[in-house]
Amino acid sequence: MKGRLAKRRDKSHFVSNYGKDIKLNCLIIVDSIMGQFDTFNAECDRCDYSLSKESGKIPRDLTEASLSGAGLSIIAALAMMFLFGMELHNYLSITTSTSVIVDRSPDEDYLRIDFNISFPALSCEFASVDVSDVLGTNRLNITKTVRKYSINKHLKATGYEFDSGPVTYRVKHDEENDEEYGEGSVTLNADNFDRISHQHAILVVNFYAPWCYWSNRLKPSWEKAAKIIRERHDPEVDGRIIMGKVDCTVEVDLCRSHHIQGYPSIRIFRKGSDVRDEHGHHEHESYYGDRDTDTLVKTMEELVAPIALESPNLSLEDKTVTSTENAKRPAPREAGCRIEGFVRVKKVPGNLVISARSGAHSFDSSLMNMSHVISDFSFGKKITPRVMSDIKRILPYIGASHAKLNGKSYLTDPDDHANVTVEHYLQLVKTEVMRSSHQLIEDYEFTAHSSLTHALSIPVVKFHYEPSPMQVLITEKPKSFSHFITNVCAIIGGVFTVAGILDSILHNTMRLVKKVELGKNF
Question: Can you give the residue ranges of the Thioredoxin domain (predicted)?
């Protein structure tokens, strides 16, 4: 019994000691595991730091505030803004492509020529615009699309548009024969011209030159008509009308004061309705009708018919259209003329000529002065200022040769250089601009070379134009917005990367310098 109790005490003591050993061993194992876990955490921290450097994350030197880093950041920001502005400007600007192609204009496509030219010494009475080309086209005295205005020596218009009237291709004269005729007209000069014009209600004057063929053709019929009118209306009794003549080779100043440039020139002076201008010259009419005796007598009778015999000092206005009304037109008030308008020509080499022209007058070429001032000379359709400004936004240089002659003057003095013809040689190229909106704008640019040459006959102003068979095609190329965004992103990333590299180099350099100064060796 006692033995059994002793065994039970020994067994319980063994179990108690064994349990204490197990607890102690467990504590040792747990402590060892915790130590290993701390070591593992430290190793993981070191690995994370190493991985952070190798994975491209922002290094510590870029996260540390420094004066050099702040300056570099400001410079990077300014660089980004500058590059962004340049890219924005490039995106907003318009790029074009230029190509040279053959001009495929159809034959029925005509070229328009606009002009505005002032001639200080060419009378509107005889100024003519003619067009010709290499295909045989020859149009003389174009009036449908051309306007003329009398101008003074200061190039200022002195009245309304000059009425050129219907074009007369042939003027009727008396048959040439050796029949004797007396002197029926009064010879006028500078001394008696004003006096005689004040004594009669109507004075009809023939300004002639003895060397002129047409003056000699007019002379017999003029003297016969003057004699008939004198017999019917005696100047001493009637006093309503008288016919006179002026020799312009003798009375040069008198003819010049009345702007006589072609011979013969028949002028009609009306007393009472005449108004003297600032130079003291009468306003008057020019006669362009037939020159045979019967027509001249009929014209004189129609002029004197409205005037009452008892009132010879007044010229009554008559609104009745007579058979010779179309033969009379107001004479030019000044010696100059401004010619403006346009013509349409074929797209082949040709000439636009401005000269004094008449089928029944002669001109003294030594007295002709073709000095002129070009206000406008251009080819093609008129381009509005708004469209031209849009074109210049695309191509700033375009339009510089669109009106190359505008504002230029070509003045000559007949006393020094007689019979002078002014020639302008023009070479033009068609330019088409295709907008991004598919709007096609057509323009013509040209080069101009001018020269003064001696005229063999009547001086003229000649514009010789020569279109090019090639044309310039300019196409507007718009830019993509996605391309703009891509470039902006590239600018930001590029500047940021370069700034990081520079900051790293600068930071490492400064650390190296400090270590060298402290005497550390590596």
Answer: 156-305
